[in-house]
Hints:
Layout: E1 2-10, E2 13-18, E3 21-27, E4 43-48, E5 55-60, E6 66-67, E7 72-73, E8 77-83, H1 91-103, E9 107-113, H2 121-128, E10 133-136, H3 145-152, E11 156-161, H4 167-174, H5 178-189, E12 201-203, E13 209-212, H6 216-224, H7 229-232, H8 260-266, H9 272-285, H10 290-296
Parallel strand pairs: 3-5, 8-9, 8-11, 9-10, 11-13
Antiparallel strand pairs: 1-2, 1-4, 2-3, 4-5, 6-7, 12-13
Helix pairs in contact: 1-6, 1-9
This protein binds guanosine-5'-triphosphate (GTP) and zinc ion.
Zinc ion (ZN) is lined by residues 246, 251, 253, 256, 259-261.
EC number: 3.6.1.-
GO molecular function: GTP binding; GTPase activity; metal ion binding; rRNA binding
GO biological process, one term: ribosomal small subunit biogenesis
Amino acid sequence: MIEGIILKGIGGFYYVDTAEGLIECKARGRFRKTVGKPIVGDRVTLEIQPEDGTGYLQTIAPRKNSLIRPAVANLDLVVAVASAAPPVTDPFLIDKVTAIAVHKNMDALVVINKTDVNPGDELYETYRRSGIEVLRVSAHTGEGIDALRERIRGRVSAFAGNSGVGKSSVLNRLDSSFGAEVGAISDKIGRGKHTTRHVELHPIEGGGYIADTPGFSSFETEQMDLVLAEDLQYAFPEFEPYIGQCKFTGCAHVKEKGCAVLAAVENGEIAKTRHESYVKLYESVKDLKEWELTKGGTR
Ligand SMILES: Nc1nc2c(ncn2[C@@H]2O[C@H](COP(=O)(O)OP(=O)(O)OP(=O)(O)O)[C@@H](O)[C@H]2O)c(=O)[nH]1
Ligand SMILES: [Zn+2]
């Protein structure tokens, strides 16, 4: 029995990274009644067919978490890449991505890129106080890249960022084999590079994987639909000390009298932009009912 992690799935074939290398596998129908179809990021065991060296998936470990689109399981870390240099990142995008990560039990990390042009002091201060980790980097000068490399080592990470923020530049700085690795996997599969709509895990130097995600838009939309309004407050770590301190039980922390969260925003303990993002997200999910979530499947 060989253990591994699914890096890519195409047309019923799964490409599993194992101690013996990358193994092409098929899955039997047996998973349909339990976890469903195998997805990228799944931890699996497999058996090798002596005839041709291909594998058969035997078991899929219970998922720590999963996203729907892109379909990926067991993410340890979501990195929201932002920039205070043009194109300046809307903090709402960062807050949406980090809220999803926190809600799904993944670590969240905000990375402010292009510090050679603008150090992003305001953004940095906002997240430093939020309870969400924040790092400053420059893909051009290499500042902060070692620290970021430390944070992703040995883990499965997804990078999200608005177009032009420098996500590709940061990834290439992080791992010189990043670009080459994409080609290597695609060649083995023999389908060239026309597979970008599928999410794929790229092994990185020193252990760990990076999931390529197409950008903020595809990352957030469908996931956010699955957060209940009353759970949203827990996706903002800095709200935690105030939850339960409001005058009314079930306070939404939007504009209620005697709200402890609003008081903390007023006296500067919670950043205004963070609360604005919370309110915007709250409005978008407040009519969602519990039964709609279970219909959606994963939470
Ligand atoms: N000054 C400066 N420019 C940077 C830095 N990182 C990236 N850029 C520039 O920003 C532009 C966009 O960089 P990309 O790496 O292509 O950005 P991306 O986020 O991958 O963009 P998409 O492919 O649209 O998702 C390029 O012109 C880069 O040279 C940085 O640290 N400092
Ligand atoms: Zn409140």
